[in-house]
């Protein structure tokens, strides 16, 4: 596995391509895209460890962002075309600290969110952002997400806009640009993102990530063992040598006395992740195997 601190101006696919060159393998994938304008943590799987990515996609995430209140855009971020006229000075002055806090609170907790039209969600087999770029009007159905925390860190009033720095903890599938759009709409002044940084995915902070230059220098030395990732996500079963061989051959394990759980990281004596397994009624069965 790789934890990469993605720079602005790169797509997630760009990062995957750089990792393939640095590691000398085509088998590299990522768990959850970041927009080109965004920076921060991108989780990559390499080789057989791409099988872990399914379990990383659904992890909760944390972002640091700057929301600009005063104008909406076609993409809900600074790269889009302005929508309508900018908010008047009077309208911006009517946005008090109290009204801002009230609308932020309404966007916190379990909410129904309509994803941005320029998201990667597929509509009839085609990405929504591709349809928008082709000139189509796209409005996606609202979906349930959870914003666990929406903390305002700073507010700057420039006269022509209000800039709000925030830290947001949210469930997978939450669109931060949609939060900016909806906050601006609720306050009657429009809103969009001007900066976005992913600072955490599940238990993995961006502080543990490396940049692309370091990846190019270190190559395979930058990789994290799959077991070290799995052990931070799941309960762990330590295998003896015989169990590791049996599980590697697809056999069931007698785990009498073990509590039911799924998935469980089954780790060999040498620290290698052998499989993710389910434990039911004292029997361990392979969910996903990881070849030696």
Automatic annotation (TrEMBL):
It catalyses: uridine(55) in tRNA = pseudouridine(55) in tRNA. Residues 177-217 form the tRNA pseudouridylate synthase B C-terminal domain. InterPro entries: PsdUridine_synth_cat_dom_sf, PsdUridine_synth_N, PUA-like_sf, PUA_sf, tRNA_psdUridine_synth_fam2_C, tRNA_psdUridine_synth_TruB, TruB_C. SUPFAM superfamilies: Pseudouridine synthase (SSF55120), PUA domain-like (SSF88697). Gene3D superfamilies: Pseudouridine synthase, PUA domain. Residues 234-290 form the tRNA pseudouridine synthase II TruB subfamily 2 C-terminal domain. Its EC number is 5.4.99.25. GO terms for molecular function: RNA binding; tRNA pseudouridine(55) synthase activity. Responsible for synthesis of pseudouridine from uracil-55 in the psi GC loop of transfer RNAs. Belongs to the pseudouridine synthase TruB family. Type 1 subfamily. This is tRNA pseudouridine synthase B. It comes from Microcella daejeonensis. The lineage of its organism: Bacteria, Bacillati, Actinomycetota, Actinomycetes, Micrococcales. The gene is truB.
